[in-house]
Task: structure prediction
Amino acid sequence: MIRRTLSPSVLLSSVLLSMLLIPFGLAQPEDWPAPDMLEFERLEPTPPEPTRVELDSGLVVYLLEDRTLPLVQGSLYVRAGGLFDPEDHTGLASLTATMLREGGTETRTPAELDEALEFLAASVESGASTSFASVSFSALSENTEDVIDIFHDVVLNPAFNEQRLEVAKGALLEGIRRQNDNPVQIAQREFLRRIAQGHPQGRFETEASIEAISVADMRDFHGRYFVPNGSYLAVSGDFETEAMVALLEDAFADWQTRDVDYPEVTPFSLRPEPQVYLAPRETAQSVIFVGHPAVYAYTPAYNRLDVANGILGGEGFSSRITTEIRTRRGLAYSTGSALTQGYDAPGIFFAYALSRGDATVEVIEALLGEIRQLQAEGVSPAELARQQETTLNRAVFRFVSTAAIVERTARAEMLNLPENYYENYVDTLQTIDLAAVQDVAQNELRPEDAIIMVVGDPELFGGREALAAFGEVTVIDLEAEDTGAFLPSQDTPRLGRQP
Result:
């Protein structure tokens, strides 16, 4: 049994309801429990099981019927992400994925494609993250066959229209030219570059890399990586499973299986050289990142560290960092910590703050201090219980729709996760105890190895000399080099959670 404390708004509503009932002689019965003492059985999500089918082409399809609305949705995942960008063509995977939809097909011009989808009240979208490219569709069930025909055409027969490509490249180049306008984006970009140190996750689009990308490059990238074997399609909605399988089998019969020679990727160092980096900007605030590579996602260590991070700084106002640095000491406008999910490379743990410029050094000391205190003292039973409850409540939202369920199942196989990983996650989380949290904090958090990034006005905090207390300082001249723009992928932000 779980005792749940109700929010202030719910408690207030209960009080108001009682006040309204009293004049009518309908006071709350004495044997009713107080709202904040109510107890409920724990919700155990029991999502429906998608049907798995492998088409003759080798494409794996997951299907889940849902007759609630006359809609059908699908998402295709292909191992064709930014991880495989040539260094001098950074942005190729993302631009190729974008142009699948924007650039028309061999049988439909971009305008004709737009018009056809509008007429059918349907959509086809495409994009790429570091790990994979995705193409999705949404249609009224009565138009499913027509939309899947368009979807197939977009996936297999892109035209990469030159005029649309110039428009897309122009938008990217404009973003790159404004790459140093936002101090937070500067901090994210430069922090990741130093954390990754040569790995594709630490590369960013530049004017040179975008201008170098041609239609021929995109055709080559598409022809090389867009294969059915190793790709996964998740379909949900108003359909009959056998009929949908037959429709997809026929639609993708011409998608030929072949081996792919994936390039070797620069190894991601788990221990980059700890250093302090300063990017001078004339601003009243400093943006601070303190962190290092951590653990791979979907592992026991990740689950434990995720709980530790939530208590440390990942859960907003209830976390230690926010309570100490923002609420109690008033040093930062926004502060906390995060743990990214990493599949092709380790996740990244980092603490951050948007602080007053004159408090920069004090905030760095406080961030490091909170990490060390967690390592030395662990967490309290109340903190652990609250964080487990928060994480469990969040896990329920993985199953809010048939589309979410079937898409997550397809991605789980693509990422080679253990069978029933997400279903077992709830049980796994509840086995994490106080000793496990302190152990992972001591073994996986390394404040002594942290890379520290500061974007701010050196005049306000003593500059390079003041930061030298934390290690060797390197000053980044943002105007002297083509550093690349922080342009988050369409699927996931670079410092956000992966699928």
Notes: Residues 276-475 form a domain with the Cytochrome Bc1 Complex; Chain A, domain 1 fold (CATH 3.30.830.10). The chain has 18 helices and 14 strands. The CA atoms of residues 365 and 391 lie 29 Å apart. The radius of gyration is 26 Å.
